[in-house]
Amino acid sequence: MPFRPWAALLIALFALTMSLGLALAASPVGPTYYGVQESALSQGNTSLTFGYSSQSPIPVTAALGWLYFINGSFSSQGFEGSVSVQLNVDLVSGNTSSPSGYYWAQAVAGVRELGGGRYAVRAWVNLWNFTGPEGYEPGLGQPLNFTVVLGSARLARSPQGPYLYSSAGWANVTSPFNLTLAVAAQGDYVAFYYGLNGSASLRPLLVVMLPQPVTMVIWQAEGMDAEFVVGGYAEGSEAIIGSWDALASLRYYLGPWSPPSPPGQWYCFPAMWPEGSQTAEGVSSAQGVAVRPDPSLWAFNETQGASGGQAMMATALVRAARGVAYASVWPTCANWTVTVEYYYGGSLVRQVLRPSPSGVASEAVPPDATYLNVTAVAWVGGFPAFENTSYYGSVPSSPPPLTLLLAGPLGYGLVLALASAAAALAVRVALRRVSLSSQS
Question: Are the C-beta atoms of residues 93 and 99 closer than 8 Å to each other?
């Protein structure tokens, strides 16, 4: 399943293709993050920027793909008509802006239809060394040195060169089922994780050490994305989809991690595109997988149809009202900060907030403050992946909306307090009934 050599050119054209709603023939289909500069917009007192420099490598510690498979009927040229679900990421060694080594990591699950709503699932991993004489040479596997820390692995060979390979046995499941794949990299450790029927079952499939430290990156300029996609089983095969009904999402983690335990908090990417570019396996453009955004779940609905779909983008409402600055962001699972800046009494006041679980952040502002800016930023790997700013010469006199009080930290705390009080009252009533029954 090696990298397509023309991936960088494809990614450069991808944003235009998706804006027109066109499908790319035989592409792998599913949530993908490219980290490209998407748009910049100024309207009234609001400035919106989506993305950042596409020339910069964006470091993350781990990536996770989650699939809730409801049902499907499919075939491909793979083992007994199996299709593959792939999590594909890139690793570099040395300086991330000028790497000395390049690796491509794949956590893969083959899915085979057994009939009667039953399916067989098998996980395996591939790790390729794409460090060639000319630097980064995707699709040309080079010799790979590694030390197995947990699990078992061997060097396999393909027409594209050698690669690390490890696999688990087939497991039979009944739909619907959850499938989770994850890859993590820190220092010289690389770990692959696999979960079936619930993220709680996420377990290490393989942990290896490479000869040098590596960093997982998303790097649009070099054609490196993070993708969780459906395609043919192997060797560049194409999946033919008779029916497919699933939800799919892609997450990432940035922070310290100690193998073999899986990483901790997973963040949503603030954008997801519906097609990948790296793996050679794809789906038929006619009998493939159609992708529709489901912003409420921050996932894609995947159904049978002409392959492709529309991208899904984060949103942020940033406003000020009498005595308060506030923001409402979505998805709440992204890594958001909300910054409130203003001048008061001749001094600059700056507060950085984290949104509540409901996605709302608010800060009291003196009514006579001036030059007020409210900015919401969704971060990926230390880069501002999404930014929305509203600015005001003076604090507006209009009252804040009632929804702010209900949705913000005050309202969230009120809901928790009411729930706690109701629970305490229920306990007291139950104890009182027990006491009365014991006295009778």
Answer: yes
